[in-house]
Amino acid sequence: MIVDESSVIRDGLCTLLAPAADIDVVAATDSGARAVHLAAVHGPHVLVTGLHLRGMSCLDLLRRLDAERLPVRPRLVVFAQHDNEDMVKDVLQAPTHGLLVKDTSREELAGAVRAAARGEAVFSPSVSHRLVEWYRTAGSRRVRPATRSALQSLTIREREVLGLIAEGLSPLEMADRLCIGEATVRTHVYRLRTKLELKDRAQLVAFAYRAGVAAEEGFAA
Questions:
Q1: Three-state DSSP class for 54?
Q2: pLDDT tens-digit profile of 131-176?
Q3: 143 — alpha (psi -120 to 50), left (phi > 0) or beta?
Q4: What integer is the mean pLDDT of 92-115?
């Protein structure tokens, strides 16, 4: 389901998703209250929402949906026209499964919807880079012993995959970057989750930041 006060953005998102044979847009609206009703009626697996809605903010909508007893609780992806610091912090503190900004491509949007449907979190590269900078500033490179030990248990390839997860890359993009198959990437991700005892991609991202991982600069020692 698509929610945004701008008909141009709603239509644009619908158009971008239209070629994806495995994605059906079941409803679109500009109203936060209407979105809650439509979510109860249609049971969408994923809700893509803009920041600005009629009648409430997107964060209010997220809280409303989180509080509702819906037959299917949609996973939430926020599509924003900018990535300023306050907005990113607000969205990441809400129960979301992704944050995309205006330079998102057709493939990235469809990939984010698919990832959210699987329970994974996806961020635009600019958002992921901002998160890395926040953790650097906060002194995240002073790695705790338990985190250091867990990091040292990983193979070199698993560390590479973890770094690319921290960058916000999809499995297909990671496969292209590492010149391996997408199935092999998914195997590495599964092994990472098993070794680190983490449930999903969002927790892998959080671990990568705690460990001071930045793919372009290597790993904290």
A1: strand
A2: 666 655 554 445 566 677 788 888 989 988 998 888 778 888 889 9
A3: beta
A4: 81
Q: Which whole-number Å values give the CA distances from 121 to 33, 97, 169, in the listed order?
A: 25, 4, 11
Regarding whether 164 and 85 lie in a shared domain, the answer is no
At residue 184 the predicted structure's pLDDT band, cuts being 50, 70 and 90, is very high
Query: In total, how many domains does the chain have?
Result: 2
**Two structure tokens written together for 99:** 């944050």
pLDDT digits (tens, 9 = 90+) for 194-210: 998 888 777 888 788 77
User: Do both 86 and 191 map to the same domain?
Assistant: no
> Could you tell me the strand order of the sheet in which 46-49 lies?
28-29, 2-3, 46-49, 75-80, 98-101, 122-123
Asked whether residue 128 is assigned to any structural domain, the reply reads no
Burial class (CB in 10 A: 0-12, 13-18, 19+), 111: buried
- Domain ends where: 88, 123, 158? 123
Domain that holds residue 149: 139-210
Tell me the C-alpha distance between 142 and 126, whole Å. 24
The more confident residue out of 206 and 26 is: 26
Angle at 54 between CA 94 and CA 16, to 5 degrees: 75
**How many Å separate Cα 121 from the centre of its chain?**
3
Query: Who's near 195: CB < 8 A, 6+ residues apart?
Result: 150, 153, 154, 158
| Strand, helix or coil for residue 199 | coil
Q: What is the band of 86 on the pLDDT scale with cuts at 50, 70, 90?
A: low
